[in-house]
Amino acid sequence: MKAFVAGATGQTGRRIVQELVHRNIAVCALVRDAEAAKGILPTEVSLVQGDVLHPGTWSSALAECNVLLCATGAKPGFDPTAPYRVDYEGTKNLVNAAKAANIQHFVLVSSLCVSRLFHPLNLFFLILLWKQWAENYLRQSDLTYTIVRPGGLRNDDRDEELVISSADTLFEGSISRTKVAQTCVEALFEPKFKNETIELVGKPTATVSGA
């Protein structure tokens, strides 16, 4: 197995890369700045410098992989087009290229509450709406997929149990990025996560529910 990771230097993406390396899975990391990525990602990871909005910069590298994990996301800022371009158009480009490359499994990191149009996060240039559209595009692609919707993302690794539930059943809570990364990689091996949308939060004491 060789994994292509988009958004590899982001806070969640870098943890996905680390988890893949921990499991001895070869990684090709799509990064905006290769020099900066060298100081962030493990040395055994191969780097391809490019942009999800420009498939020509990375499609040949994707063709050498058989699974794809997408942890991209628009950065907070004042560009009203950023969520549309990154979270929707960028993901569409990845989906289209994955189909052309016969990718076996596409794992997409989305967000809790994408189905709630009037959620406060949509005040930030409809970011949840564009994530929802990206999810729908992936579902309709005929690719094998797993959509992972985490709650509020934390960088700490406090002791907590993982709650996994089906789509549109969890609407609040937070989770460590490390557990999100572990779940994304586990989805590549767990049959029950194939062609499913799962939601994740962490709790100090929790009972794991079926996805």
Architecture overview:
The chain has helices spanning 11-22, 34-38, 59-62, 82-100, 127-139, 177-186; strands spanning 2-6, 26-31, 46-49, 67-70, 105-109, 145-150, 152-154, 161-166, 174-176, 196-203. With 211 residues, it is an alpha/beta fold. Helix content is 30%, strand content 24%. The chain is built from 6 helices and 10 strands; from the N terminus they run βαβαβαβαβαββββαβ. The protein has one domain: Rossmann fold (3-Layer(aba) Sandwich). The longest helix has 19 residues, at 82-100. The strands form 2 sheets. It has an 8-stranded mixed beta sheet, with helices on both faces. A two-stranded parallel ribbon has the order 7-9.
Would you summarize the structure shown here?
The chain has six helices and ten strands, in the order E-H-E-H-E-H-E-H-E-H-E-E-E-E-H-E. The protein is an alpha/beta fold.
**Global Rg:** 16 Å
The tally of helices reads: 6
Which structural category do the helix and sheet elements fall into?
alpha/beta
The overall average pLDDT, rounded, is: 91
Record field, number of beta strands = 10
CATH architecture: 3-Layer(aba) Sandwich
Uncertain residue segments = none
Strand count, sense and barrel status of the largest sheet are:
8 strands, mixed
Topology summary:
Elements: E1 2-6, H1 11-22, E2 26-31, H2 34-38, E3 46-49, H3 59-62, E4 67-70, H4 82-100, E5 105-109, H5 127-139, E6 145-150, E7 152-154, E8 161-166, E9 174-176, H6 177-186, E10 196-203
Parallel strand pairs: 1-2, 1-4, 2-3, 4-5, 5-6, 6-10, 7-9
Antiparallel strand pairs: 8-10
Helix pairs in contact: 1-6, 4-5
